[in-house]
What does this fold into?
Amino acid sequence: MQNLCSNFITATVAAQRPPTSKSNDSIRGVSGFLFLFAILSLIPSASSLVHFTGEGFAYTFLDAPARFAVPINAKGICGSIHVANPIDACSSLQNAKAKIALGVGNDDDDSKMRFVLAIRGNCSFEMKVRIAQDAGFQAVIVYNDQDNNSLVSMIGNSEGIYIHAIFVSKMAGETLKKYAKGGDGGCCIGLSSEETAGTVLVISLISLVIILSVLATFFFARNCRRIRNVAQSNPQTMAKDEVDILPSFIFKAANLSKKSMSETCAICLEDYRDEEILRLLPCEHSFHSVCIDYWLTKWGTFCPVCKHEMTSGN
It folds into this structure.
């Protein structure tokens, strides 16, 4: 009887334990890296500087590179500025490279990079860039048509785009337009060392914070699982002398008429037989003495039927 009860109790308690899953840590790790990717994707493209120089003047403006065009590398690019004709660059440009080669417009060196200046509006950023690209320009400078100083991050479909594109303020655009007529003045676009260093620093700090957060979550979850497993493998139990204090009696079939009496032990699921010793818990549930003694001293301090806690004092 004792072996039967102990085996049944062991199987029952093991079935009640929640299965441990090593995939939880993997899920947390993947979630952390997805979060890192989302954070980094929200960081705007590093702004660069437009340097425009000529006889008696020199200007420097901030710009925002287009997300769909070819990015400008650290070396930067230099060329001559041409004002788009029409100015919004929403239709075929009259100052295309072929016409300049025929002598229409100016006489810039054909090997020199050519930038086109266009105003925002009337069509999408992507359309302006594609029209400028078809016209033979290597870069597009789109300036704001509103008086605010905010820089817009231009978006569009990058498929088939192989030139550069940046966005500048209205003041910068009007200044470039004023001095760029006829190709006067040279323009260079490149990342500033301060901006590059700042962007790298921000991304590095965010990456470090995310990685530390993922590691902290991983170790915290692992420690919690260890503590939970230890608690489950070493449950609170009662001492043998405490169990012996609980009342016991000899089973008689005639006693089945009593309200609190059951004819089957809820632990081993065996029917009671005459002359077997039963033990009665404070909640008035009775079990085979060997079954409930093993339960209370090995697996828990509560009634297997109603979960009444033996150590509650009630």
Remarks:
- The two ends are 30 Å apart (CA to CA).
- The first strand starts at residue 48 and ends at 54.
